[in-house]
TrEMBL record:
One of its GO terms (biological process) is DNA recombination. It comes from the Bacteria. Residues 130-234 form the Core-binding (CB) domain. It comes from Nocardiopsis metallicus. GO terms for molecular function: DNA binding. The lineage of its organism: Bacteria, Bacillati, Actinomycetota, Actinomycetes, Streptosporangiales. This is Integrase. The keyword DNA-binding applies.
Length: 489
C-alpha cells in the first residue's frame, strides 16, 4: 500500500498589528499548559496528492473542521481513497482529481465504497454523476422518436411526480425505498383530496390546485417511466449505476379491468340509483343494434359508429382513416394512420405499435354501408364544389372537414342518451366488437390481429366478455351432461 504524507494543524483568523493573518502562530491557540484551546481556532489537514496529468504538484488541504479528531478522520479518508487506486497512474490521477474537486466545491469527500465501485466498473471518476432530475431531462431529450402522446405522458410524470419527489437525489444514490416513499406521499395527497371533496372544503381544495386523484394504474405508469429511464442509465458505461430502483420498488398489482355487460339486473339498478357496476361497461349485441338503429338518423355519423361497432377500430383510427387505405372492392381496410388528441389540438401519426398497423377484412353489410356513405359524401362534395376541402378522409362532417375526436365522443354520448341506453365509453364499442367476434367463434388469433394487439393473451384477458345468453347456453349444456340418459333423450 502506498504511503501518502499528510498532517493536521490548527489555525485561526487573528491578525497582527500590520493586518497579516497569524494563522498557526496565534498564541491563543494553546492554553498556558501547552494544550490546544477548545474555544479558539479551527482544525485542518493537508496531504500531498499525486501529481496532475501535466506533472504539477498539488495538495489536498481543508480547514474549518471542529476538532483534531475530525481532521484526522478526513485525512485518513483521503489516504484510503488514494490507496484504492493502487499503483495505476491513471487511477491515481483520477482519484486525486476527484478529491481536489470535492474540496474546492466545499462538498463532503466521496464515500470509499462508491469510489471503489466506480473504479471496479471502469467508470471515469471525473464524470460527475447527475441527479435524477438532470438524468430524466437528458434521457427524454435523447428520445426523438417518441410519439407526441408518449412524450407528453413522460413529461407529465416527470413534472408532477418524479422530479418533485426524487429530483434532487443523485442518480447512483437512488434506492427502491425512495421510489416507495414517493408513492406513499402521492397516496397521502390522494387522501387529502378525497377528504376535501367529501367535506366540501373549497379553501383546502384550492390549495391542492384541484388536482385529480392519482389512480393505481397511473402509479404503475409513473413507475414504468422511471424504470425505462433507469434502464438506459444502467446501460450507460460512463455512469456508475448498476441498480434499477424502480424495478425493485413495491407497488400493489393492478389487474386489468374486466369489461362488464349491461345485463337486465344491472340496468335496473342503474335506473334506480345511477350505479355503474364497473369501470369498463359494454352493451349486449341487442343493445348495440339498438344504438346503431338510433344512429341511422345521423347520416354523417352512422357509418363511422357502424365501423367501430363491427370491426373494433380505435377512435383515432376511424377519424383519421383515408379513402386511399379503404379498398371496398376487396372488402379490406389498411390501418396505417390515426388522429391523436393532445389537449384540444390534434395531429396525424402512425399507430404506436407495429401490431397496430394492420389490415382488417370487412363483412358484406359493412361494405354496403361504406359504399352508400361514399355516394352520399360525393354528392355533398359536388354540391359544395370548390368549397369542399380535399382531406381524403373517409369520415367527414357536412362541410367536408374531418371530425375532431372529442366531437365524435360527444355525439356518441348524445345518441346513447337519446336511445335510452345505459352509459358506456366510446371505447366500449371496441370491447363489444371483440367480445362479439370471440362469442361468434372467431379464432382468437384473427380477432387479436384485427384489433391490432401484439398478443392473443392480451385480447382474451382484456376484451373477452361472456354475454349472458352465451353463458346461459354453456351452463345449460354443462348441466345437461349430468342428467340421466332417459331425461337427455
Amino acid at each position: 500500500m502506498a504511503t501518502h504524507e499528510g498532517s493536521t494543524f490548527k489555525r485561526c483568523g487573528c491578525r497582527d498589528d500590520n493586518g497579516k493573518l497569524l494563522g498557526v502562530r496565534c498564541a491563543m491557540l494553546r492554553r498556558r499548559s501547552g494544550t490546544w484551546s477548545s474555544t479558539h481556532g479551527r482544525w485542518g489537514y493537508q496531504v500531498e496528492l499525486p501529481r496532475t496529468a501535466q506533472g504539477g504538484r498539488r495538495q489536498a488541504r481543508q480547514i474549518g473542521l471542529a476538532s483534531q479528531e475530525a481532521a484526522l478522520e478526513a485525512l485518513q479518508r483521503v489516504r484510503v481513497l488514494l490507496d484504492l487506486a493502487g499503483q495505476d497512474p491513471d487511477d491515481l490521477i483520477q482519484v486525486a482529481d476527484l478529491i481536489q474537486a470535492e474540496i474546492r466545491a466545499r462538498r463532503p469527500l466521496p464515500e470509499v465504497e462508491e469510489v471503489k465501485r466506480r473504479l471496479h466498473l471502469g467508470v471515469n471518476l471525473r464524470t460527475e454523476v447527475p441527479t435524477v432530475q438532470e438524468w430524466l431531462a437528458e434521457w427524454l431529450k435523447d428520445k426523438p422518436d417518441l410519439t407526441r402522446n408518449t412524450r407528453r405522458s413522460y413529461s407529465s410524470h416527470m413534472k408532477n411526480h418524479l422530479v418533485p419527489h426524487l429530483g434532487r437525489i443523485r442518480l447512483d444514490k437512488l434506492q427502491a425505498r425512495h421510489v416507495e416513499a414517493m408513492f406513499t406521499a402521492i397516496e397521502e395527497v390522494n387522501e387529502r383530496i378525497i377528504e376535501c371533496r367529501e367535506a366540501g372544503d373549497t379553501g383546502a381544495w384550492a390549495k391542492l390546485e384541484r388536482r385529480r386523484v392519482v389512480s393505481l394504474a397511473t402509479k404503475h405508469r409513473i413507475r414504468a417511466t422511471l424504470r425505462s429511464a433507469l434502464s438506459d442509465a444502467v446501460r450507460r458505461p460512463d455512469l456508475p449505476v448498476t441498480f434499477n430502483a424502480a424495478s425493485h420498488a413495491r407497488l400493489p398489482s393492478c389487474p386489468r379491468k374486466k369489461p362488464l355487460v349491461w345485463t337486465a339486473d344491472r340496468i335496473k339498478q342503474w335506473e334506480k340509483d345511477g350505479t355503474i357496476p364497473g369501470e369498463v361497461m359494454i352493451w349486449t349485441p341487442d343493445q348495440t343494434i339498438r344504438f346503431l338503429d338510433h344512429a341511422r338518423k345521423y347520416t354523417w355519423l352512422f357509418p363511422l359508429f357502424h365501423l367501430i361497432a363491427v370491426k373494433g377500430l380505435r377512435r383515432g383510427e376511424a377519424v383519421g382513416l383515408p379513402w386511399a387505405n379503404t379498398r371496398l372492392v376487396d372488402g379490406q381496410i389498411d390501418i396505417h394512420t390515426q388522429v391523436v388528441q393532445l389537449g384540444w389540438e390534434t395531429h396525424t401519426c402512425t399507430p404506436k405499435s407495429t401490431a397496430g398497423e394492420r389490415t382488417i377484412t370487412l363483412d358484406a353489410t359493412t361494405v354496403r354501408v361504406l359504399r352508400t356513405w361514399k355516394r352520399h359524401q360525393l354528392e355533398a362534395k359536388m354540391a359544395l364544389g370548390a368549397q369542399w376541402p380535399d382531406t381524403g378522409l373517409v369520415f367527414t362532417r357536412e362541410d367536408g372537414q374531418g371530425w375532431h375526436p372529442a366531437q365524435v365522443t360527444d355525439w356518441f354520448h348524445r345518441i346513447t342518451r337519446a336511445a335510452g341506453l345505459p352509459p358506456i365509453a366510446l371505447h366500449g364499442l371496441r370491447h363489444g366488437a371483440a367480445s362479439m367476434s370471440l362469442a361468434a367463434g372467431v379464432d382468437v388469433k384473427v380477432v387479436s390481429a384485427e384489433l391490432g394487439h401484439a398478443t392473443t393473451h392480451f385480447t382474451q384477458d382484456t376484451y373477452q366478455t361472456v354475454f349472458p345468453d352465451v353463458a346461459k347456453a354453456a351452463a345449460e349444456a354443462t348441466a345437461a351432461m349430468l342428467k340421466p340418459a332417459a331425461h337427455r333423450a
